[in-house]
Amino acid sequence: MAAYEKRRAAPAPAPAPAAGSGPAEPGRAAAGELGSEAEFLLRAGVTAMVREALLKVLEARPEEPVSFLADYFERLVPGSPGAAGEAAAELPGPPQRLARALWYVRLAHHSHRTAFDSNAGAAYEVLGAGGRRRKAGVDGRLYSELLRRICQHGGAPAEAAAALLGRVRCRDHEAVPFDVFRYGVLTCFVLLEFAAKADALFGVLDGGSGTADGRVCQAVLRALEDALGIGHVALPGRYLEAGSRLGPDGLALAMDRALQERKLGSSMSREEFLKKATALFVAKVKPVE
Questions:
Q1: Going residue by residue through the chain (289 aa), what tens digit of pLDDT does each one get?
Q2: In whole angstroms, how large is the CA radius of gyration of the chain?
Q3: Which member of 1, 74, 124, 164 has the lowest number of beta carbons within 10 Å of its beta carbon?
Q4: pTM to 2 decimal places
Q5: Alpha-carbon gap, residue 212 to 206, rounded angstroms
Q6: Taking a C-beta distance cutoff of 8 angstroms, is the pair 147, 182 a contact?
Q7: In 3D, which of 223, 218, 212, 273 has the Cα closest to residue 249?
Q8: Residue 118 contacts by C-beta under 8 Å, 6 or more apart in sequence?
Q9: CB count, 10 Å around CB of 232?
Q10: How far apart are CA 133 and CA 144, in angstroms?
């Protein structure tokens, strides 16, 4: 009897239900539904579009990825303002090229060196694109105008921005190599960050009143000058490291010594403090030769 049971054939699988005979199995229906959704995304080109967008984010490393993606997808929609801007950027006119170059250099923070260098290279290529009446390459006029727009959009103090541009600009007719282009762009962004840090420092000194004790401000400025060091530094980002040498103990001692002076000190406004602080920065910037 046992041998007979072993020799007995295995039962045949149940036939698939005929069309209209009843609902399909849940697992099989779900698999078919997922397959149809994936096929739809592939046919519509959405899969490739999203993959390309993610690669762009990884390449540019923007400070605001969501805004970057929104702008990226807007440029893909025909007739949208973003698409119109993209089409305009492809025109040979300097204003369009400058706007596109500014968009590139503002994507990633300069501390993300690989992404910043990549975006600076893209901006350099956009500005250097040749046209019917001009040779390819970035000239001093476009380079200086881009630096001016960086400072303007970043809200840099006007006097400090003008002084900085005087040290890193090139003559209008000169061809600007990429290393000079990158140095100028980076220096402008470092100025913006330096000014923001100085503004935050003054916010500590004034206590929200809008003015601070002039003796304390002068002591802080002297400590800042000492932290910046003597001479020019080839890497602008090194100036931001001066804050690490302005430790709380050093600042506290400088402020305490200033307050112990018996001289009557005048007040200093935020604008005056920022003007003096950014002037210290600009004085340390190595001029473009």
A1: 444 444 444 445 445 455 445 555 555 555 556 568 878 877 777 777 787 778 777 877 777 888 878 877 776 665 555 544 444 444 446 788 899 899 889 988 888 888 899 899 999 999 987 655 555 679 999 999 999 999 999 888 999 999 999 999 999 999 999 999 999 999 999 999 989 988 988 888 888 888 888 888 888 888 778 777 754 555 565 555 555 555 545 555 555 555 555 455 688 999 999 999 999 989 988 898 7
A2: 31
A3: 1
A4: 0.67
A5: 4
A6: no
A7: 223
A8: 59, 60
A9: 11
A10: 21
120 and 182 Cβ atoms separated by less than 8 Å: yes
DSSP the chain: -HHHHHHSPPPPPPPPPPTTSSPPPHHHHHHHHHHHHHHHHHHHTHHHHHHHHHHHHHHH--SSHHHHHHHHHHTTSTTSHHHHHHHHHTSS-HHHHHHHHHHHHTSS-TTSHHHHHHHHHHHHHHHT---SSS-SS-BHHHHHHHHHHHHHHTT--HHHHHHHHHHH---TTSB--HHHHHHHHHHHHHHHHHHHHHHHHHHHHHTTSSEEEHHHHHHHHHHHHHHH-SS-BS-GGGGGGHHHHS-HHHHHHHHHHHHH--SPPPEEEHHHHHHHHHHHHHHHBPPP-
Residue in the structure block whose two tokens are 């993610």 = 54
Are 140 and 147 within 8 A, CB to CB? Answer: no
